[in-house]
């Protein structure tokens, strides 16, 4: 069980309409993970102006679905029919893939419909984070290897025209 799942499980055991601070999660995770998880749990909690929160009362039939938090090691069932083409050409059937691999493969296609599907499935912030990580890794390496041809990368990753175009697509989701 991931740290985010542990935090969300603890939130579901809290009393309704009673204020809590983030300190109740100190034994579970780091402050950064706690902060991010609380930000992603807006369907379960309501924040107050004093940097505290309380658990919201949700009726069973309210139709609220929890926000899924995917970690780098998380695996998902990849269904190729959801996308315009199968980036995992080894199989045409649903398969288990890592979240990062699915996002990175479809970001490379620069296909608007696929990027919108990624945002729906994994959340816009997660897709944006993978894009930034991918470009930071490429620029840290200093070159892009395309079938043996090494293309030098200069400047900053956030000024790359392809990066800016994909980022614009993600922001439009």
Quickly describe the structure:
The protein is of the alpha+beta class and 173 residues long.
Notes on the structure:
With 173 residues, the chain is α+β, with helices and mostly antiparallel strands. It folds into two domains: 3-62, Arc Repressor Mutant, subunit A, CATH 1.10.10; 75-171, no CATH class. It is built from six helices and seven strands; from the N terminus they run αβαββββαααββα. The chain has helices at 3-13, 31-40, 99-109, 112-122, 124-141, 161-171, and strands at 19-20, 45-47, 53-55, 75-78, 95-98, 143-146, 149-152. The protein has a three-stranded antiparallel beta sheet with strand order 1-3-2, with no helix packed on it. It has a two-stranded antiparallel sheet with strand order 4-5. β6 (143-146) and β7 (149-152) form a beta hairpin. α3 packs antiparallel against α4 and α4 (112-122) packs across α5. The longest helix is centred in the C-terminal third of the chain and has 18 residues, at 124-141. The chain is elongated, with a radius of gyration of 19 Å. The chain starts with a helix and ends with a helix.
Break the fold down into its secondary structure elements and pairings.
Elements: H1 3-13, E1 19-20, H2 31-40, E2 45-47, E3 53-55, E4 75-78, E5 95-98, H3 99-109, H4 112-122, H5 124-141, E6 143-146, E7 149-152, H6 161-171
Antiparallel strand pairs: 1-3, 2-3, 4-5, 6-7
